[in-house]
Amino acid sequence: MNFYLLSDDESSVSIVQNIIESDFSNSLVGVNFDVDSAYDDLLQLRVDVMIINCLEIFPEGLNLIKRLAQVHIKPHFIVVGPHNEAYKDEAYRVGIDAYLDYPFNHLEFKNITKLVGSYCQVVDKMAEINKLTSGIATPFNRPQSKHRLRTDRIHSILRFLGIASENGCDDILRIAKVMVDQNIPFSKIDFQESLSLNEHEKKSVPFKEFGVPYVLVFAI
Fold first, then answer.
1. Under DSSP, is residue 215 helix (H, G, I), strand (E, B) or coil?
2. Are residues 52 and 131 both part of a single domain?
3. Could you give the C-alpha distances from 157 to 109, 181, 199, in angstroms and in order?
4. Using CA atoms, how far apart are residues 86 and 125, in angstroms rounded to an integer?
5. CA distance 16 to 10
6. What are the beta bridge partners of residue 2?
7. Which of 45, 97, 160, 166 is the most buried (most CB within 10 A)?
8. Same domain, 86 and 141
């Protein structure tokens, strides 16, 4: 997972880097202390999670998120900012994933980066499942071997995520099967008709089982 840090506090860089890279699958691919330079970096780098640790330049940090969205660059964002409810509300309105008050608690910061990183992995893998299950023929027109191949691929992705044996896995497989059989994207599924799920049940399936409590629905 690629992380990027924009900060107005040079003393925090080593702390943030140590926390991020304590997980060997993570890497801090860039650090910057200037908003415009950070914008230029994001145009060139593949960044999964951007950390904005700003007190003095807090408004500029939020404006950067808006600028990036305008050019369709949308990493996940963790913001460390002032203990200010108005600032926090504004940050969530522009699309951040988590807000930590400055100075941040190291254990809380580590847990938040882990959760956001896990969410990124789930989204990526579900997007891959969606790509596999979108725009393909119905089972009646598709050779059985191809249908089985795609089903096996979905199982493989779930095993890679380590959730193949979890309680919510059956829900994922049911949803994936509907997408394949009906040749529809996730957003077009009629949960009540196809899966007997009402709107409340749809929003709670299935990621609450996988340690990502704030993910309520597939982001694909």
1. coil
2. no
3. 28, 19, 27
4. 35
5. 10
6. 27
7. 97
8. no
0.70 cut: is pTM over it?
no
Distance of CA 176 to the CA centre of its chain: 19
Token pair in block for residue 48: 């999964």
Q: How far apart are CA 13 and CA 10, in angstroms?
A: 6
Residue 180 tokens, joined = 């394949």
Q: Which domain holds residue 79?
A: 2-104
Total domains in the chain come to 2
- CA-CA distances (angstroms) from residue 26 to 22, 48, 144, 183? 8, 10, 40, 36
Range with the lowest mean pLDDT among 55-69, 75-89, 128-142, 145-159?
Answer: 128-142
Element (H, E) at 31: strand 27-32
Residues 181-210 as b or e (16 or more Cβ within 10 Å = b): eebbebeebebeebbebeeeebeebbbeeb
Q: Is the Cβ–Cβ distance between 4 and 49 less than 8 Å?
A: yes
- Whether residue 155 sits in one domain with residue 93: no
Enumerate the β-bridge partners of residue 164. none
